Amino acid sequence: MKKMLVALLALIGGLVGVFVMTRDMSFAVHGISELSFAGAAIALLIGMNVVAGSVVGSLVAALIVGLLGARAKERNSIVAVLMPAGLGIGILALSLYEGRAANKFGLLTGQIVAVDDPQLVWLIAICTLVLLTLAVVWRPLSFASLDAEVAAARGVPTRALSIIFMLVLGLSVAASIQVVGALLVLSLLVTPAAAALRVSSSQVLVPILSVAFALIAVLGGILLALGGGLPISPYVTTISFLIYLICRLIERVRR
Fold it and tell me: What is the DSSP letter of 181?
C-alpha cells in the first residue's frame, strides 16, 4: 500500500503543481503547509488521527486564502499572516506533547515509514479524491488559470473553480506532508512543475514531465534513504532541485 501511496502522491504533486505555477500560488503552498502542520500537531497532542488534523488545518487555510485572497497582492498578505500563526501554534502543540521525539520530527520533515495502515487508507482516499476532482475540472480550470478574464467572459465559473482548486491544493498539501514534511512540501508541489515549465510549454507535455519528475524525486528519495537513518525528505528535495537545475541548463542551451 505504501508503494501505491508514493505513486499517488507523485501523481497529484506533479498535476497540482502545474496549476500552482500557472496561477502563481507557490507562496500559498507554504502558507497552507504551516496551518496543516499546526492541525497535525494539535491532533498529535490530543491523541487524534494526525492525518485528519493535517487535513483540517490545510482546508481551513485553503478556504481562508481562497475566499479572501482573490487578487495576488491580497493572497500574499494573507499567506504571510497565516504562516507564522500556523508555525507558532504547531510549535506550541509539539512543545506540550510528551510522546516520542520522532513523532514531532516527522511532522516537520516527513516520515512515511512510520505511517500506519489506518493513515495509509486515509491518504490513499485523499489522493483518489484529488485525482477524481482534477479529472472533472481539468479543462475549465486550465482555461481559467491561463486567462481568467476571458474564461469568465465565456461563462466559466472562475470563482467557484478557484475555491475548488484551493480545496484540492489543501488536500494535496496535507497528503504530501506525510512524505516531505511541512517545511519541505514545496519540493513536491512546486519544483517538479517549475522544472517541467523550463523545458516545455505544451499543455500536454508539461503535466507529464511534472509527474515524471515528482515520481523520480520521491522514488529516488526512498531508495537512497533505505541505506541510512535519515528521513527521505532531504533526498527528495535534493533530487528535485537537481532536476530543476538540469532543466534550467537545458533551457539555456536551447536558447
Answer: T
User: Are the beta carbons of 199 and 21 closer than 8 angstroms?
Assistant: no
Residue where the block lists cell 487555510: 61
> Is the confidence at residue 111, as pLDDT, over 70?
no
Query: pLDDT digit string (tens) for 217-248?
Result: 988 888 887 766 667 778 888 999 999 999 99
Does residue 144 contact residue 161 with C-beta atoms inside 8 Å? yes
- For residue 188, give Cα distances in angstroms to 149, 217, 243: 29, 8, 12
- Burial of 177: CB neighbours in 10 Å, binned 0-12, 13-18, 19+: buried
Residue 84 and residue 137: Cα distance in Å, rounded?
Answer: 32
- Mean pLDDT of the 15-26 span: 90
Say if residues 93 and 45 touch (Cβ distance below 8 Å).
yes
Structure-block grid coordinates of residue 191 = 519544483
H-run or E-run covering 179? helix 158-180
- CA–CA separation, 184 vs 178, rounded Å? 11
Cell 461563462 belongs to residue: 155
Which residue from 79, 54, 25, 96 is spatially nearest to 182, judged by alpha carbons?
A: 54
